[in-house]
Amino acid sequence: MTVNMFCLPPAGSSAAIYASWKKLMSEQVSIIPIEYPGHGALVKQPLVHDPDYLSHYILEQIQSYGDRPFLLFGHSVGAALTWRVEQLIRSSVLSRQLKLLVISGRPELEFTSQMALKRFLSREGLIDALRYYNAVPAEFLQNPDIMDFFLTILRNDFHLNDNMLNDSIEITDTPAMAFYGESDPDIAGVEQMEAWQKHSRDWRGCYALEGDHFFFNRADSLDSMLEKICDELESLGVLLRSSQTLPIPES
């Protein structure tokens, strides 16, 4: 059986951030990055900063993949959207197919509610934010046209983020787990990630990995995270355990 892993990107990014994962993940797990309107391959579409609209849009993308079991992975802004989508799934036919939530690089709501709004930042303020997260390629800084194009997307996504800082979440029965970078500037300590456990009756743990906000850009941290996700899918009975083999049919 193949399990779909839908991946929701962080602010200012696109589905391409997850492209390399397809070669690293178990053959039993299909990595499916979700592209937001106005990003990446959908760059000609209008940008969206309404989380209600976007969560319904993501739900429609998931529904288009049929009746396979799946998990949701979201990083940073994508993690906030993951909870929004999960709450929509609870009242849909997809509820039995959702097997795991993976929250990455986003503090729990008690802590995000204290964050400053970012959509009003000046151009230089947006660039400083990119430096803060170690997320600005040098070639972008050297090309004003590319930078302006990118900053328009980033401001939209910061607006989206601002609109979810004070979200509320009803507790779910869906298993959940969390990952974060030990040097993430937005996460002061493990308690800010462990606090997500109050939102799931089946908490599968929180893991600190080497790296900053984009810890999964480190090959070792990415390998560790994907391995732990597969371990949880195995323990949930969604994947065959690595020691198991399929029965050989009789001739």
Which secondary structure elements does this structure contain, and how are they paired or packed?
Blueprint: E1 3-8, H1 21-24, E2 29-33, H2 51-63, E3 70-75, H3 77-89, E4 98-104, H4 109-112, H5 123-132, H6 138-141, H7 144-162, E5 176-181, H8 191-194, E6 203-209, H9 219-235
Parallel strand pairs: 1-2, 1-3, 3-4, 4-5, 5-6
Helix pairs in contact: 2-3
Give the helix tally. 9
Give the termini distance in whole angstroms: 23 Å
Strand order of the largest sheet: 2-1-3-4-5-6
Level-2 CATH architecture = 3-Layer(aba) Sandwich
SS class: alpha/beta
Number of strands: 6
CATH class: Alpha Beta
Shape: globular
Fourth CATH level, the homologous superfamily: Alpha/Beta hydrolase fold, catalytic domain
CATH third-level topology: Rossmann fold
Helical content band: 25-40%
- Indicate the proportion of strand residues: 5-15%
Q: Note poorly predicted spans.
A: 243-251
Radius of gyration using CA atoms only:
18 Å
What count of structural domains? 1
The overall pLDDT, averaged over residues, is 92
What profile does the largest beta sheet have?
Answer: 6 strands, parallel
Order of helices and strands: EHEHEHEHHHHEHEH
